[in-house]
Amino acid sequence: MPIEISASRNSQILPSKFGDYYDCDDLRLKVKLYLKINFIRKLFFIRNFLKKAERMTILNSAICPYCSCGCRLYPRYSANGRLTGLAPLRNHPVSRGSLCIRGWNAHEYVRYSDRLSAPTIRKNGNQYESSWEEAIGIASSCMQNVIQKWGPQSVGFIGSSRCSNEDNYLLMHLARSVVKTGNIDSKNRITYLPVLDAFYEGLRIGSPTITFNQISKADFIMVAGSDLSGSCPQGASRICDALKHNAKLAVVDPRGSNLAKLANHHLKVLPSTDLYWINGMISHLITKEKINAEFINQKTTGYTELRKGLEDFSPAFAEKFCGIPAELMMIVAEQFASAQNAVIIIGSGITNTRDIKKTVRALINLGLITGHIGKESSGILLSGADNNTQGTWDMGVLPDRLPGGFPLNMSNQEKYQQFKFKSKPVAGKNYNEILAGVISGDIHALYIMGDNPLEFHENRNEFEKALSELDLLIVQDLFPSEMTNIAKIVFPASAPFERAGTFTNSERRVQWFDPLIEPFANTKSDWEIIASVFRAMDSDPGVQQVSEITDQISDTIPFYENMKAENLKKEIQGITWLPDNDGNPSEPWLQEDWKGEFSTAFPSKDDTIERREEYPLLLIPGRFHSFWGTGIRSCRTSLLIREDQRSFIQMNPADAQKFGVKNGWRVRVISPAAKIETSVEISENIPPGAVFIPMHKIDGALHQFSRKSQPVRIESC
Ligand code: SF4
């Protein structure tokens, strides 16, 4: 209703559109009210406009290509249709209207100037641009020659957690159905796949057990080996939510970090000694009978062996190895056990240990013994993985499992035909064994999708030479690298924003993503390239479109059953899976016969890193704020590089004095296998005896070393 503005000073009753009545004495008050109502109207208009815009973009949105949080993004275009930015969706359960700096800027690397733009083939030592037909033809005939001459087990395949479920599923099928080899794995073998294997063996579910939002409601959060503010920003934001309602936070990390500053307890563990503090806590809880006996009796197996194995173990014994005061271990263990809901978050400190699987099994023991598994806001979450690490495992890009984590030893033909394999699948070499096979001469052909195995290889020179001498090396990627330089065939792939498919985040959320822009130059989606190789090898992949692969996955993997492309496209939040006994999505521990399995994951001499006199420091590799992995994509993003483009070695002031170096000095960092030059940064955040180098490639090039914690020494340049 329009408001009548009168100059009269007489009091008036003014009806508002909200049905209230305002007593207006003078003109000023009326004008104020008028402006206020108009302002509210505008707010409503803006809100409705934003809602409408968000609804419109639901049909055209993507998933962040970096970390395993899986934030959903929608695009921003310039007037001429160029992708100029990305923004978060407000009603998405993970992004909740916020992104980290990587997500906001994820569009930039996609059109970076050095993108691979056309297939190339190597002839007489030189690389030439070729047509797709020629490159695919040579790839397939070379592979057939290798199979004929050396057999199918001489071919290796490496998938990627940066590629979609559809890409990985089809690569797995090419390996298992067409070539008939089990030599397929991904680089996650050296970090995250052992974690998922441990989950599968201990909890009967090959994935973390809780969602990010459940962290917000936990009463006790234990973060093992990570500064989530960089590696898992959405996990860190949920911890902040939980702290607001007085949850307790314990951070087990040798380094001081943003998260450690917020913690009630910072347990400064010596690198790679995690099995000691975990078993120290478990033994204390057993001794003090602060365990959940009812849960152990009803829902677990193997407790007797665990208890017997820890009879001589104690926090005081653990302290000698891990450096955490026994008393602190006991306090944290008791608070964890007595919490209503408690969460364990696994970070890179755990995935850098010698025996990742054993360490994660020990953490599972801690969760099971206290009954903090399988309840709302109680469980285990993995942080810091790539955006499709979970999907790579689910799709069976594994040498010893089939899609969905099913074992290879299936009893009958009917069962493996469910996976559309023509013959019984065989076990193969894992990632490390495939790379070793290249050096030993057992592998003659290697197909690599979205990976650079030269990074972090301990024996770079020998490995590079062996790669260049392979009968066939196919590299499928976005950017040039040491690998594309020596490949026989290079297939240029489309980036995630240039195609459609699905990713599965670390809370098992399977999400459809749309193409936001046209494919770059003469590039193709990874799955399209693999399908062409299928056809060139006289096999039918049975798909013409990406959604047909999504449907095939849904038909094949029981717990992806309701994840047909059509369903996923409608669900902007994605669909989360959890298998029950029949493979139906459910919470397995709610099934009557679900039982978690304790393991005897005790420390042994091989698990700790031996210090040698000539290498007195322990190198902790890790991520640094805005960069992701070795920076293949994040180092091609101007804003992220502007944040901090140096690499450095961080060390404690006492060590700096001991080794006679000062802030900013250039030093050589030397391990038994590699050597790099970088600058010193002195920091109280690093414990004495340890040093930290970030993984990204600019300047310091940590990737020359192996990715694990390792002994090093430093020398002034
Ligand atoms: S990097 Fe992770 S937290 Fe950051 S926007 Fe991407 S998915 Fe979200």
Automatic annotation (TrEMBL):
Keywords: 4Fe-4S, Iron, Iron-sulfur, Metal-binding. It comes from the Bacteria. GO terms for molecular function: 4 iron, 4 sulfur cluster binding; metal ion binding; molybdopterin cofactor binding; NADH dehydrogenase activity. PROSITE patterns: 4FE4S_MOW_BIS_MGD. InterPro entries: Asp_de-COase-like_dom_sf (IPR009010), MoPterin_dinucl-bd_dom (IPR006657), Mopterin_OxRdtase (IPR006656), Mopterin_OxRdtase_4Fe-4S_dom (IPR006963), Prok_molybdopt-oxidoreductase (IPR050123). One of its GO terms (biological process) is respiratory electron transport chain. One of its GO terms (cellular component) is membrane. Residues 57-114 form the 4Fe-4S Mo/W bis-MGD-type domain. SMART domains: Molybdop_Fe4S4. This is 4Fe-4S Mo/W bis-MGD-type domain-containing protein. It comes from Candidatus Schekmanbacteria bacterium RBG_13_48_7.
